[in-house]
Write a structure and sequence with these properties.
- The complex is a heterodimer of chains A (170) and B (502).
- By secondary structure, chain A is mostly helical.
- Chain A is built from eight helices and no strands.
- Chain A has helices at residues 2-14, 18-40, 55-67, 69-78, 93-112, 114-129, 133-154, 163-169.
- In chain A, helix 2 runs antiparallel to helix 3 (55-67).
- Chain B has 23 helices and two strands.
- Chain B has two domains: 2-223 and 231-465, no CATH class; 467-502.
- Chain B has helices at residues 2-6, 8-11, 14-32, 38-45, 54-79, 88-99, 103-136, 141-157, 163-178, 203-222, 239-245, 249-264, 269-284, 296-307, 309-320, 326-337, 346-349, 351-374, 376-381, 387-406, 409-428, 432-455, 467-501; strands spanning 180-181, 188-189.
- In chain B, helix 12 (249-264) runs parallel beside helix 15 (309-320).
- Classes of the chains: A mainly alpha (170), B mainly alpha (502).
- Chains A and B meet through helix 2, helix 3, helix 5, helix 6 and helix 7 of A and helix 9, strand 2, helix 10, helix 20 and helix 21 of B.
Chain lengths: 170, 502
């Protein structure tokens, strides 16, 4: 009985995980890019191959594809299907929600300007993940002021005029 | 001495002092906060450096680099949670001392160790860099190519348990560096006809995405410390304990030397420096049994070892242009973005910059020590900041920084995509440093490869006909293969013993 448990745990340890799926995916993507690379790189120049733009990417992609061979072999050997879970610790809901908000943030900067977008993004972000309204408003205000002072006043960095305000103004 | 005097006035200029104080403050804060670390601090400050003089920009980032190691010891000692990975060794003796009500003794030992290790390593840096530069002056493109390959190989091999993952990520990093218009031939590569990709992926966007965004998302999910227990006794460091710590001066110097030489090797980094310094101190101690139970000498050894690594890592970076780990890779990025190419001629071409760098390193160590000694409680209280606030603020600042560089939404998109990649890789525990090494070293390796092949008229075997290249290759093979053979022999020996005893 004990031997069987040991065998089970040994085979579980050897079984492919999300790591292998990821490694195999990267390796196969590299192999596809390697095959397509002559068409994805402009080779119209006069340089011989060893001075040309293709040699280094080909070496790199070949090396990357080869590095994934052990993971691909492990997946093929076990044939248990492709495990897609990252690490079994569940879906990162809060991180995903904040990430989606932050994807909109750069668009917000170009649309309504640095200060307004920063205040809104930080406020909404904190309300989503911190959930204390008054503290969130205070932190968003401090953050907006700090960002404005650091980037606009101190570093004097130019940001494009917000297109939404320009549109309304026009 | 004349060389050192060149950078003295620049190092003590207002801009430089302000930069290193700000950098050190940020470094201590991110070092104190478990889950962030100096890398996040460096990449968040990266966009601010573009409008600064190279020496000031480097002081700012070096402040974060060194300050992070100083700060990492504080939560390790007070809460047995290392702020930076290498401080785990400091917790071995630091936390038992705290548990006995001697937190001040542990903190004094750690901070004196950090300061001493940092100073010892800077002296070695000043002495060793010109020697290595002199040797490297005889290098041509093939030697540089072999040295660069040797460096990245050592970094990948240092993750022995994840060798294929390290190679994969190195390959991905190198590939990402090829995307866009190829400089020498002006050919478009892997742009898929999408014009914003013709400029390639911005280094700042990639690094900020992977660490600034990826690490923050991870921090949000995993959380950090939740504690109300900060048993410091007083607001500042107890200076009478500092004097007491000085009796471990031998350990301090020895650990500083060890840390510098470990930092010199690409790959192993500060964790190994801490462990080896601690182990050597324990072996040479007259009371080895007290180690792990609250011996301040353990804190001195560990912190002196890990704080000597930044200066050690600067030696191959400045003389050969080879970064040993991700933090030095970011520094290399700063050099190249400013049109400065580290190598053997750097000390001749930019003596003032290098001299300023040495002085700045020295000042950073003193400033970090003084700040932590005088503001111990405020810095220690930082561990109470909720991770949700940190995550939102770090991501927002990262995205503003990226947008501020070129005002391109495409760069923000690259950073966000890199953030997802960074999050997944960090959560899986893959060696992300290999990815960064690939991104930073890609253009350098490709350039040297082209020059080497041009010299050999397309024949790569030409490299083996050069004695210096052959020596580096032999050295690389010895460093990589010998430990494998030794481990195999040890394993076989242990198996034989096991069989004999059964």
């Amino acid at each position: 009985m004990t031997n069987r448990t040991d065998e089970d745990s040994a085979s579980a340890a050897e079984a492919p995980s999300g790591h292998e799926t990821l490694a195999a995916g990267i390796g196969m993507a590299a192999a596809v890019l390697l095959i397509l690379s002559p068409w994805l790189v402009d080779r119209s120049g006069p340089d011989p191959f060893y001075k040309g733009p293709l040699i280094f990417p080909m070496i790199v992609l070949a090396g990357t594809a080869l590095s994934a061979v052990p993971a691909i072999l492990r997946l093929l050997r076990h044939r248990v299907g492709l495990p897609f879970h990252v690490d079994g610790n569940g879906f990162p809901g809060r991180a995903a929600a904040l990430f989606v908000l932050m994807c909109l943030y750069p668009l917000g900067i170009s649309a309504i300007g640095l200060s307004a977008a920063t205040f809104l993004a930080v406020l909404i972000g904190l309300l989503m993940v911190y959930r204390r309204p008054w503290q969130s408003v205070a932190i968003a205000a401090i953050m907006t002021l700090t960002v404005h002072l650091a980037f606009k006043t101190f570093l004097d960095i130019w940001f494009p005029a917000p297109w939404l305000f320009e549109m309304i103004g026009a | 001495m004349e060389f050192l005097a060149q950078g003295f006035s620049q190092a003590f200029s207002f801009a430089n002092i302000a930069a290193l104080v700000i950098g050190t403050t940020v470094g201590i804060i991110v070092g104190v906060l478990p889950g962030l670390g100096p890398m996040v601090g460096m990449v968040v400050l990266l966009p601010f450096t573009f409008s600064l003089e190279p020496s000031v920009a480097l002081s700012l980032l070096l402040g974060v680099f060194c300050g992070g190691y100083f700060g990492g010891a504080v939560p390790a000692i007070l809460l047995r949670t290392p702020g930076v990975p290498s401080s785990i060794v400091t917790a071995f003796d630091g936390f038992p001392l705290t548990a006995r009500g001697e937190a001040q003794t542990a903190l004094s030992a750690a901070l004196v160790g950090s300061l001493g290790g940092g100073l010892v390593s800077i002296v070695i840096l000043i002495m060793l860099a010109p020697l290595l530069s002199h040797v490297a002056a005889s290098f041509g493109p093939p030697e540089y190519l072999v040295a660069a390959l040797f460096g990245v190989t050592l970094v990948v091999v240092s993750f022995r348990d994840q060798l294929s993952r390290g190679l994969l990520l190195l390959g991905v990093g190198l590939f990402l560096s090829t995307i866009g218009i190829d400089g020498p031939t002006l050919s478009a590569r892997f742009t898929f006809g999408f014009w914003p990709m013709q400029n390639g992926f911005d280094l700042v966007a990639l690094v900020l995405g992977i660490f600034g965004i990826g690490q923050s998302l991870l921090l949000l999910e995993q959380g950090i410390l939740k504690t109300n227990r900060l048993d410091l006794g007083r607001n500042t460091l107890d200076f009478s304990r500092i004097i007491g710590t000085l009796r471990y001066w031998r350990t301090l110097i020895r650990s500083g030397v060890l840390g510098t030489f470990i930092g010199l090797l690409p790959g192993p980094g500060s964790v190994l420096a801490s462990f080896i310094s601690y182990d050597v101190a324990k072996r040479r101690s007259s009371d080895p049994e007290s180690f792990g139970k609250g011996n301040p000498e353990g804190c001195v050894a560990s912190e002196a070892g890990n704080n000597a690594v930044p200066a050690g890592a600067l030696i191959p970076l400045l003389t050969l242009g080879i970064p040993g780990e991700a933090l030095s890779a970011v520094l290399l990025g700063i050099f190249t973005l400013n049109g400065i190419y580290p190598g053997p001629l750097l000390l001749i071409k930019e003596p003032e910059l290098i001299s300023t760098l040495y002085w700045s390193m020295l000042l950073i160590n003193v400033v970090a020590f003084a700040m932590l000694a005088l503001l111990l409680r405020p810095f220690a209280m930082i561990v109470k900041v909720p991770p949700a606030i940190l995550a939102v603020c770090v991501i927002a600042v990262s995205l503003i920084g990226i947008y501020a560089v070129n005002s391109r939404l495409f760069d923000c998109g690259v950073a966000l995509a890199a953030g997802v990649v960074g999050y997944v890789l960090l959560r899986l525990g893959w060696p992300v440093v290999a990815l960064i090494m690939g991104i930073v070293m890609g253009p350098i390796i490709e350039d040297r490869l082209r020059q080497t092949l041009s010299l050999g008229e397309g024949n790569p075997l030409f490299v083996f006909g050069r004695p210096v290249s052959l020596t580096i290759i032999a050295l690389g093979v010895a460093i990589i293969v010998l430990p494998m053979i030794i481990r195999k022999l040890r394993r076989d020996g242990a198996e034989d013993e096991g069989r004999a005893s059964s």
